[in-house]
Model the fold of this input.
Amino acid sequence: MSRNAVKDHLDRLADEGRTVTFWLRDDDAVTPTPALDRLLMLTSAHEVPLTLAVIPEETGEALARRLASVPLARVAVHGWSHRSYAVPPAKKQELGLDRPLESVTDELQAGFEKLRELYPAQFLPMLVPPWNRIAPAIVDRLPAIGFTSLSVFGREKSAPLALLNTHVDIMDWHGSHGGKPAEALFAELLSYLAGEEPMRPIGILTHHLVHDAAAWDFLEQLFALTASHPACRWRHSAEILSA
Ligand SMILES: [Zn+2]
Done:
């Protein structure tokens, strides 16, 4: 059982006086919904801080008012419109070179400023590219817009600004379109826990708007196992980046 193997690994780390850092990124928020309420209740019940990647174009005061009472929530910039400009069969991408670079950077600037104004206390100058894809030429422009960090999916590579990635995506986008089986997710988690020395922060990626029962159930299991485990620290992305 992968879940038990994760628990055994964490117990061993605790015995050795070691800790592993987790962070949670949830994508695509625009407006308050019952699914968002469920995510906020679940994370606050376990005191897990979360970074919401908000799509700037259509969002507004309603989401800002909902999140104002959630001290554990921070807001990052999720592109501008979450529209793909890639020409099939290329994979979906908003932040590619399929249109003039200036069009892309102007929109990112608008998104940065809109969310900074909506979230004076909770804004993070972090870009989360839609579909976790961004052209290197656009990455090079991010510091000039004001971004100090970037978050995509997979192991961190070098970049001209701080990178804090997600590593375990709980959704099965290509198969069931629901949550991946919990055993498979615990196995992925174990490969990160056991794989690298020194251990880097592990990012968990969620999409509350499309969670099915399996996705919610895995999150519940993950938080139950880790939130108060002596070897685990759930931390804010900003706190990890400033360390
Ligand atoms: Zn997205």
Residues 46 and 227 are 6 Å apart (CA to CA).
